[in-house]
Design goal:
Layout: H1 14-33, E1 37-38, E2 44-46, H2 47-54, H3 59-64, E3 67-69, E4 75-78, H4 83-92, H5 95-98, E5 102-111, E6 123-132, H6 137-153, E7 160-165, H7 169-183, H8 192-200, H9 211-218, H10 229-244, E8 250-251, E9 263-270, E10 279-285, H11 289-292, E11 300-306, H12 307-312, H13 316-322, E12 325-333, H14 336-351, E13 355-358, H15 365-374, E14 377-383, H16 385-390, E15 392-397, E16 403-407, H17 408-423
Parallel strand pairs: 1-5, 7-8, 12-13, 12-14
Antiparallel strand pairs: 2-4, 3-4, 5-6, 6-11, 7-9, 9-10, 10-11, 14-15, 15-16
């Protein structure tokens, strides 16, 4: 074969594609409940957009972006994350002037040129939500609750919500100096990346995955001693409101985010199925990002989750449910007369919106049943000469293997009626 997939890119097919679709459907359902509206942002933006938003010295900008010069000599990049594009769209479309608080959700592929590993690809998929135009700590809690309910609806359990307060940019200035004073005697023990971070963005040392660096980071000064009363008040209100909402969390005073725009509340959802790189999704408040893009001084908060990582953490119970499409049917026919009648039924049911399939090859019963199983249809309608003579059909439930003989016209009418009720 002359062509193959590029490293770090994948084809999503079969059960994996169905799981992606189910996760996206869960997102649309839950985000709609919270008043988030879908936004579709471009895959390609000016590189400067991401440099401004994420920080010049972040790993994403320094090492991971797919960037190039287009024909107009503009330096562009494939989006490595969604928040920057949403903020750009918020301002460019004057949402800040026309509707104040704006709540968006997005889903789709992102791109980072990093070393491929389980759940981390060069083209990966994210689902995210952003609330722009609010300073309220209750918006932080609403966002976290939206994430938690989405995970539940997507069939994810066994995760942990971790929380921290990063304070403001001004509060972090003193914290940086304290970190430099702490890490300076240990520079020789740090990895190459962290020695570079020490000079350019010392807070990033707290997020290194190198075990030696992590051990040093565990004993580093904490940001909490540099926070003002206002930042502490905001965070305390978040914690109290999370308790009211019934959301369990763990405070993690060492947690920082990999992007520079976060302020005050940050959170991360981790899952043991993901191993050492256990982040399922993350987010937080980014109160200065809109202003840094030339917009008003308004607060904002959001999160993003990786779809590939979500798919790895679906519970066994939810995965078992995926084996069959509940409202899907497959017609199996025995003989030419039954085949023609089966095709007629197939056409009529589809005209009424019923999801139904059929094997046109006229193969054996065993072969057709394999096709039914592959289609993940929950029910199989079996038609043969005896059934046609008696005006019946055999209906097999593929989940439990039971079979029933049903009156054909009555059963078909019930399927049409069920579909009509679903769409009313």
């Amino acid at each position: 074969m002359p062509f193959g997939r590029l490293r770090g890119f994948q084809d999503i097919t079969g059960l994996s594609a169905a799981r992606f679709t189910a996760i996206e459907a869960a997102a649309r359902e839950v985000f709609g409940l919270f008043g988030f509206e879908e936004i579709r942002i471009p895959l390609l933006e000016e590189k400067a957009l991401f440099t401004r938003a994420l920080g010049e010295e972040t790993d994403v900008v320094q090492k991971e972006m797919y960037e190039f010069e287009d024909r107009s000599k503009t330096r562009v990049a494939l989006r490595p994350e969604g928040t920057a594009g949403v903020v750009r769209a918020y301002l460019e479309n004057s949402f800040d002037k026309n509707q104040g608080l704006s709540k968006f959700y997005y889903m789709g592929p992102m791109f980072r040129s990093e070393r491929p590993q389980a759940g981390r690809l060069r083209q990966f998929h994210q689902i995210g939500a952003e609330a722009l135009g609010t300073d309220s700590p209750y918006a932080d809690v609403e966002t976290i609750q939206c994430l938690v309910l989405f995970l539940k609806r997507a069939g994810i359990s066994g995760y942990e919500v971790k929380l921290n307060n990063l304070g403001t940019f001004e509060e972090r200035a003193g914290f940086r100096e304290a970190l430099r004073a702490y890490f300076k005697p240990h520079l020789g023990k740090l990895c190459g990346d962290c020695r570079n971070r020490f000079e350019k963005n010392v807070i990033r040392l707290l997020d290194c995955k190198n075990e030696t660096c992590r051990e040093l980071a565990r004993k580093a000064p904490l940001l909490a001693s540099h926070l003002t009363e206002e930042s502490e008040r905001h965070f305390n209100e978040v914690c109290e409101a999370l308790k009211v909402a019934g959301i369990k969390y763990r405070l993690d005073p060492t947690m920082v985010r990999g992007l520079d725009y976060y302020t005050k509340t940050v959170f991360e959802v981790s899952h043991p199925k993901l191993g050492a790189q256990d982040a399922l999704g993350a987010g937080g408040r980014y109160d200065r990002l809109v202003e840094s893009f030339g917009g008003p001084n308004v607060g904002a908060v959001g999160f993003a989750v990786g779809v590939e990582r979500l798919a790895m953490c679906v519970t066994e119970e939810a995965a078992a449910e995926e084996k069959f499409l509940e409202d899907a049917y497959f017609i199996v026919t025995l003989g030419e007369r039954a085949f023609k009648e089966g095709f007629k039924i197939l056409s009529e049911l589809r005209n009424h919106g019923v999801k139904v399939s059929m094997d046109f090859s006229g193969k054996s019963l065993k072969s057709q049943m394999r096709g039914a199983d592959k289609s993940k249809s929950r029910y199989v309608l079996i038609l043969g000469d005896n059934e046609l003579e008696n005006g019946t059909c055999t209906v097999k439930d593929m989940r439990d293997g039971t079979q029933q003989l049903r009156l054909l016209d009555g059963y078909l009418a019930s399927l049409v009626a069920q579909q009509r009720n679903k769409t009313c």
